Amino acid sequence: MTGPVRRGGSSPVPRSADVARRAGVSQKTVSRVFNDEQYVSAEVRRRVLEAAEELGYRMNHAARALASGRSRSIGVVSLGTALYGPASLLIGVERAARDAGYALRVVNTMEGDPAGVAGAVDSLLEQGVDGIVISEPIDEGPVSLSTDVPVLVLGAPPAFAGPRAVTVGVGSDLLARAATEHLLDLGHTTVHHLAGPRRWYAARDRLEGWRAALTARGRDEPPVIEGDWSASSGYAAGRELASDRDVTAVFAANDDMAIGLIRALAEAGRRVPDDVSVVGFDDIPVSAYVTPPLTTVRQPFDAVAQEGLRLLVHAIEKPDTDPLAASDPPVDLVVRASTAPRPPRTTPGRERRTTSPPG
Amino acid sequence: MTGPVRRGGSSPVPRSADVARRAGVSQKTVSRVFNDEQYVSAEVRRRVLEAAEELGYRMNHAARALASGRSRSIGVVSLGTALYGPASLLIGVERAARDAGYALRVVNTMEGDPAGVAGAVDSLLEQGVDGIVISEPIDEGPVSLSTDVPVLVLGAPPAFAGPRAVTVGVGSDLLARAATEHLLDLGHTTVHHLAGPRRWYAARDRLEGWRAALTARGRDEPPVIEGDWSASSGYAAGRELASDRDVTAVFAANDDMAIGLIRALAEAGRRVPDDVSVVGFDDIPVSAYVTPPLTTVRQPFDAVAQEGLRLLVHAIEKPDTDPLAASDPPVDLVVRASTAPRPPRTTPGRERRTTSPPG
DNA sequence: TTGAAAGCGCTAACAG
DNA sequence: CTGTTAGCGCTTTCAA
C-alpha cells in the first residue's frame, strides 16, 4: 500500500475526512457540501468550505467515480489531424462539455490504424466515460459498439453506432447543395465536383448534396474527382481540370483543395472567376484573403458541437426520457470573388466565338 | 449504493473477480495478468485472458487509480483555438501520450477567461492526472502552480511554472532569426516585423529572434506592428505598410497574417516579391499554394511534442532521477516565391530613380 | 438536517 | 509462481 502522497515534502494531500475533522462535522457532510446537495445548513456549509480552503482540499474524482459509478467525463474519438473542421469541432465539444460539467478525454485515431474507432472507444470505456463523442468518423467497415454508454456521432449516418447512439448531421449535404445551386444560379451549365476521400462520411455527404442540386435541375453530372482534403491534391485536380475548356464551375469539398485548385488553374492560364468559378467549403480563416477571395460555405461547427452535446448529456442524465430532436444547422453561403457568371462561350451545337470582357 | 451496472438489460458488467472465478484463479492473479506483471505462468495467463474475453471484461480505471494513486493519464491545458500551431501540438501530444501508455484529458482556456490557466490546472489536478502539459500559454500574470505533479510547458520561459516544471522551448526564436536572416541575406537593408499578440510567449519569442538577427548585423529596428494571428489583422497591417516605400521586407509571425498582408500589399499595387518580400511562420498546409507561394519557416510540432512528452513521462516515472535534457529542434526554412532580392531603389542620401523590372 | 456503516473494483504488501 | 488481507477516498443507504 502506498503511504499518503506528499506534496513537496510538506503536508500530505488532504482528504474529505481531514476537512470534516477541522470543520467539526462528519465526512459525509463534507461530501454533501461539495456535491451541492440540499439539507446542509448555511452555517455548516460555510465552516466546511473554510476548512477546505485552509487545507487546500481538492476532491478525488477517482474515488468519486468508483463509488458512484459515474465519472462525469465524456470521451471524444477524433481524427488525428489539424484540419480546420475536426479541430474546430473538438474545441466546440470541449467547451460544451465543460459548460455541462463534464471533463473531456480525447483519443485520436489515425487513418489506417488497425484498431481504429472500435479500439479508441474501448479505451474510453475502460476509462469509465459517461458518454462518447465520435467526431467525423471515416468508414472502416462496420463498427459495432457493444456498450450501454450513449454515443454521439457527429457527421455520420444514424446507422453508424450502437444501441444508444445519438446522431447529429453536420448538414454538409444541405450546405453542399446550396454551394452548387449558387453556381448554377450564376448561369453555369453544370458544376464539377472535387470531392474529399470517399472513406469520409463528410465527403460523401457533400457529394450527395452536389448531386442532388444537379439532379433537381436536370443537369449533367460530370465525373467526380477525388482529393484528400489537401491543397496539394486540389492542385493536382486543377491541372487535370484546366485542360478541359468545358469546365466553368467547380465545387471543392473544402477550402484547402479549392485554394490548390485555383493555383493550378491560374498557372494554366485559366482565370478565376473570369474563366472558371470555384466554391470552397468550411470558410477557413484565410479564405477571405487568398487571391481571389474565396466564395465558400461556412460550417457552423460550434452550433453543431453544442447541439450534439446537449443531446448527449440528455441521454446520459435522463436515460429513460425520449431522445431530444436535433435541429438542422443554418446554411451560410459566403459569396466572395471566386465566383462569377458563366463566361460567354461556344454553345453546344453551334459555333460562336466571343472575347471575354476585359479582366 | 448503486446496483451493478447493467448492459442493455442483459448481464452485469464483469469485474476482475468474475474473471478470476471463471478462470479458476484468484482475483489478484487476474490483476497481475492485466498489468503485465511477471511471475504468471503462460498457462494461467492464457486461461485468464480467455475468461476475460468470454466475459467481455474491461478493467476499471477509476478503481485502479484509487488504489494505486496513479491515473495513468496526462492533462493538457490548451488554448481554445483552431489555429494551426496549437492544434498540431495537441495532436502530437496525444499521440506521444498514447504511445507512452497515458490517456489524455483536455481543458481549454479561452483568452480573457478569468480563471485561466490556474483554474484549468486545478480541474486537471482534481481529475488526478499524473502530469500536466501547458501548451503555448499566454501571459496572464504570474501563475503559481502549487502541486507536486510534473508540469511540461511547451513554448514559454522556464520560470513559468511550479517546482516540478519541465520546459521545452519550441525554438521559435531560432526559427524567427533564421527567417529574418534569410531576408537580410537577400540584400534587404532591414526587415519589418508583423508580430503576434504581445500576451503570447510564442509571439515574444519570435520578436526576440527577429530583433537578434537585426542587432547582430547592426541594422535599424523598425517599429513593430502587432497583429492577432488572423489574416484579417495581417491585412490591416499590410495597408499601413504599403504606403511606406521604404518597406521592402516583412517577417510575419505566422502564415495567416502573412497571407492577409500580401493581399493588402497587392491591392495597394505593391508586388510580392518584386517590391516587397514576405516571410511567414508555421508552414500551414495552404501556404505552398497561395499567390505567391509563401516562404515560411516550418515548425517541428511533432518533434517538440514528442520530445516534451518524453521529458514529462520521465519526470513522472522516475521522479528521483535527474531531469532529461531537451534538445533544440532543427531549423527548417522553406524558401518559396514570396521572397526575392531587394529591389533597386533610392539610396539614402542620393537621389536616384530606377524603373523596376517588368513584372 | 446530520451521522454511521458498508462497500465501489482495484493494487500493495506480505505470506505461502 | 499464487493467494490473502487491508485499504484507496468517496457515495450510498439507512438511521437518528
TrEMBL record, chains A, B:
InterPro entries: HTH_LacI, LacI/GalR-like_sensor, Lambda_DNA-bd_dom_sf, Peripla_BP_I. Residues 348-359 have a biased composition (Basic and acidic residues). SMART domains: HTH_LACI. It comes from the Bacteria. GO terms for molecular function: DNA-binding transcription factor activity; transcription cis-regulatory region binding. CDD domains: HTH_LacI, PBP1_LacI. The keyword Transcription applies. Signal peptide: none annotated. Pfam families: LacI (PF00356), Peripla_BP_3 (PF13377). Residues 1-24, 320-359 are annotated as: Disordered. Residues 14-68 form the HTH lacI-type domain. PROSITE patterns: HTH_LACI_2. Keywords: DNA-binding, Transcription, Transcription regulation. This is LacI family DNA-binding transcriptional regulator.
